């Protein structure tokens, strides 16, 4: 007859066994390997494809990054501002997409998600009617709108706190604009047409030219936006 293990030994053996982790914990562990500053995951879209607006050709083109899309909360800034980001983990290569959400003026929605960063990006979100993904675009839009508003409100609140402790001369100096970043609505006035071009490009797997001469207009607007952003306009 085999000897019985002591109760203490049994507890030790049980503690040594790997603990089952939830999908949320596994996702967070994977994301943190790439981006240690991630504090929490607010939403996951199973599949997304990244496009970029190319200034040289005035076209939307695939970037070669596609996979699961994560809407994440980051650790706060040094002064306590709430921070959030969109992360697209690439199934096709080593380059992922990371874009911090700074406010509603730098993100727009239609048939896809358009985000302004170092350039303008479009995120196509997969969904299928009558399936578990049917509501993903609407749900991720609601979450991004919420977090964009939170990020802006948190930043403005901290700015007010800092300004309240500044002298009048310091406030005047801080108020001098260093180059204005225009919003996506200013940059892309004809959002539905642009969105349709991106969806067309995804369905046909090649760059989409914007119709009716709009590409030239958007190219000029984008150049003006970059000049304004850099303080050259």
UniProtKB/TrEMBL annotation:
Pfam families: DCP1. GO terms for cellular component: P-body. Residues 141-175 form a coiled coil. It is found in: Cytoplasm. GO terms for biological process: deadenylation-dependent decapping of nuclear-transcribed mRNA; deadenylation-independent decapping of nuclear-transcribed mRNA; mRNA processing. This is PH domain-like protein. PANTHER family: DECAPPING PROTEIN 1, ISOFORM A (PTHR16290:SF0), TRANSCRIPTION FACTOR SMIF DECAPPING ENZYME DCP1 (PTHR16290). Its main location: cytoplasm.
């Amino acid at each position: 007859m085999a000897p019985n293990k002591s109760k203490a030994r049994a507890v030790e053996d049980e503690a040594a066994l790997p603990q089952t982790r939830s999908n949320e914990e596994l996702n967070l562990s994977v994301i943190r390997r790439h981006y240690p500053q991630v504090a929490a995951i607010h939403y996951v879209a199973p599949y997304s494809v990244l496009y970029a607006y190319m200034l040289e050709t005035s076209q939307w083109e695939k970037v070669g990054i596609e996979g699961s899309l994560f809407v994440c909360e980051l650790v706060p800034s040094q002064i306590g501002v709430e921070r959030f980001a969109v992360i697209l983990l690439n199934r096709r290569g080593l380059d992922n997409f990371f874009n911090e959400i700074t406010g509603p003026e730098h993100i727009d929605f239609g048939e896809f998600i358009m985000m302004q960063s170092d350039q303008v990006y479009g995120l196509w979100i997969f969904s299928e009617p009558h399936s578990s993904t049917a509501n993903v675009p609407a749900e991720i839009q609601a979450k991004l709108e919420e977090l964009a508003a939170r990020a802006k409100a948190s930043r403005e609140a901290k700015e007010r706190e800092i300004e309240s402790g500044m002298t009048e001369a310091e406030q005047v100096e801080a108020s001098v604009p260093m180059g204005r970043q225009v919003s996506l609505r200013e940059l892309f006035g004809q959002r539905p047409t642009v969105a349709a071009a991106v969806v067309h490009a995804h369905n046909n797997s090649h760059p989409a030219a914007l119709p009716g001469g709009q590409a030239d207009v958007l190219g000029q607007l984008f150049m003006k936006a970059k000049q304004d952003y850099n303080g050259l306009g």
